Amino acid sequence: PFMRGLAPVRRTLNYLEGSKLILKPYIRIFLLHYNRSQKNHAGAKEFVFWHLDSLQYKNPDVQVITFRELTPTPFIRVWLNSGRELLLDIDRQSKDEIYERVLRTLCKTEQGKIT
What is the arithmetic mean of pLDDT over 22-38? Predict the structure, then answer.
């Protein structure tokens, strides 16, 4: 039963642990707003399908929330420890572009990792 459904590989431990999406320590809440039926939201929908589980797995102290069918354009909202928020517009971006942008903007660098 574990390997059934759409893309069962994303539910494997190796897939979850292989992610590079380790958020910076001052990020507390990660929200993603998107719609499932609109074309300009396709990249956000695919990002949720392929990367959100591993992002949540690698960042257990961060609250990860998705809001569907509530916005005309897709975006990511992040709240920091200081109470400030950061908005990323992801309208008409592919899942890979969103992945690279989140990795570049919100994640630790290879040098910043604690070993």
Answer: 96
